[in-house]
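The freezer alarm interrupted the setup, so I double-checked each line after restarting. Inputs confirmed:
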Amino acid sequence: MADLGELREEYGHDSLTEESVDPNPIEQFRVWFQEAMDRKVTEPNAMSLSTVDESGQPWQRIVLLKAYDNKGFVFYTNYDSRKGKQLANNPKTCVLFPWILLERQVIVTGTVERVSTAESLKYFSSRPFGSRLGAWVSNQSKVVSSRSILLAKFEEMKAKFKDGEVPLPSFWGGYRIVPETIEFWMGGKSRIHDRIYYSKQQDGAWKIERLSP
Ligand SMILES: Cc1cc2nc3c(=O)[nH]c(=O)nc-3n(C[C@H](O)[C@H](O)[C@H](O)COP(=O)(O)O)c2cc1C
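Predicted 3D structure, all chains:
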């Protein structure tokens, strides 16, 4: 057995208080996201997205956050993928930003909705040519018998569409995670970590509480 019992870091270079955080968790997220960028976290917009299948089995995968504001957190994917099917059946989700370099994590729970086709098209059009073709090539999450099939499909799509003329696939687009709770976690000395937990109230206001580490 690989024993990792001695692998531990002492945290606590910073602290987070109920008084110091922004009353709006999206603004607090903006501050932390900027710090993650300033500290050169690799792909700070990478988040682990959880979904649950019909049998209750949870699944996770990394997706990239492409936009956020008071309405929610937006990522793009294939609507027919495994996650797409699971979200169609159960739109409840949870995402986690693992900013371990900063001794921080942010956990968002909420419900997804599809962004408008216009919003998906705007983002799709901004992607490099190869990525736009890639959306057409991949039947995301389906079994494929070999890599060469994907490469052949890529060449086929390259011949079919010219740069600038790749249409938005009907099966591809964005989801907005409309947040219901957002937790900001920061490592503290002797495992006395800070956990500031925002939950959305009926009237739309955010309640702020501290959770025990
Ligand atoms: C760093 C990183 C970023 C990724 N970004 C995305 C993304 O934005 N959208 C996406 O559909 N898949 C993305 N993927 C691939 C997903 O993790 C996953 O393999 C894919 O979406 C299929 O997931 P599913 O079969 O559970 O639907 C990314 C993977 C990594 C490692």
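Quick read of the result. The helical segments are 25-38, 82-89, 117-126, 129-137, 147-160.
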